[in-house]
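Case study 2.
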Amino acid sequence: MTDLRHGDPHDFDFLAGRWQVANRRLTTRLAGADDWAEFPATSWCEPRLGGAANVDQLDFPTLGFSGLTLRLFDHAARRWSIYWINGRDGVLTPPVQGGFDGDRGEFLGRDRHAGRDVDVRFLWTRRGADSARWEQSFSLDGRTWEINWTMDFTRA
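Prediction:
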């Protein structure tokens, strides 16, 4: 993961505010499955510390839980670290790190899924003032990626 992108403290300024979110999540991951679940969410994001941090909460009403994202910008490394906390278990996940190049952000990290170590990739795409997309992928070898969750954001 030495090829992490650099970023800017204003990379996530576009995300401030309230959003409607259309989710599509792969139910069975890393098994070649095609069993996607679709469900809505609402999100609000607030910048903190002059843009060096931001927090968003996602509420998944049909699933009965919420989650929280914490994004922190390291000024010296010029890189974002993104953490996720699922409201069901309260566990802070290991961060993904990276930044934006134009309207596309790439963030990489390591985690565990179903007892296996996995590489994790988040891709963010800014689509103007009122639309954005987030995508999560897992990899077992760091070369081939399986997309397992997408979120399409529309400003509320």
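The CA atoms of residues 96 and 109 lie 4 Å apart.
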